[in-house]
Write a structure and sequence with these properties.
The protein is an alpha/beta fold. Helices cover about 55% and strands about 15% of the residues. The structure holds thymidine-5'-phosphate.
Length: about 210
């Protein structure tokens, strides 16, 4: 059977990734593909257990280094138990966040070197990279307003960080897109849900 395709959606808080992951998966299913929708941190029972450790509790619960290791450990389980089996079975995998989130969050404001994050990814996940990464981007004020509206009932340990932290994440995402234009496509996340989904579909066309 043909090998599937691995597509990841990335971006800061409030850009609409989760909504778009669902919409993109539905559009690909309508085109006849077998699609597995998944997310990080999480996507397998072990990785979902690690997700709770990462997102719940006190802001100072973990050091930056421990966080980088936990994200890499969750990813290793997710790749081994969900992503690789789906790709080997010929499915298209649509994943809400993946390795680039570690480059942007742990590599951006937390300043863990890129090579160290890649080494963890090699150990945990055999260095698996997406075929295509869709980076959703909004002007900073609009993203913060959207994330603020969503998190008013209590955000997670990351959403609750200050605007300078999120600006550093956004800067790191843009640097990733510039460094790897063959894999990472920058997509304008403003406008209606339908308009953004149409942009995503044309971005993966090649
Ligand atoms: P979510 O809000 O998309 O569910 O993601 C949870 C948080 O985890 C989000 O603030 C980004 C953060 N995160 C990292 O810091 N590094 C990672 O590798 C991943 C996957 C997520």
């Amino acid at each position: 059977m043909a090998q599937g395709r691995f597509i990841t959606l990335e971006g800061g808080e409030g850009v609409g990734k989760s909504t778009q992951a669902r919409a993109l998966a539905a559009a690909l299913r309508a085109r006849g593909h077998d699609v597995v929708e998944t997310r990080e941190p999480g996507g397998s029972p072990g990785a979902e257990a690690i997700r709770a450790l990462l997102l719940e509790g006190e802001r100072e619960r973990w050091t930056a280094g421990a966080e980088a290791l936990l994200f890499a450990a969750a990813r290793a389980d997710h790749v081994a138990r969900t992503i690789r089996p789906a790709l080997e079975g010929g499915a298209w995998v649509v994943c809400d966040r993946f390795l680039d989130s570690s480059f942007a969050y742990q590599g951006g404001p937390d300043a863990i070197p890129h090579e160290a994050l890649m080494a963890l990814h090699d150990v945990g996940s055999g260095g698996l990279l997406p075929d295509c990464t869709l980076l959703l981007a909004l002007p900073e004020e609009e993203a913060l307003a959207r994330a603020g509206a969503r998190d008013r009932d209590g955000g997670d340990r990351f959403g609750a960080r200050d605007p300078a932290y999120h600006a550093a994440v956004a800067g790191a995402f843009h640097a990733i897109a510039q460094a790897d234009p063959a894999r990472v496509r920058l997509v304008d996340a403003s406008g209606t849900v339908e308009a953004v989904t149409a942009r995503l579909l044309s971005a993966i066309e090649p």
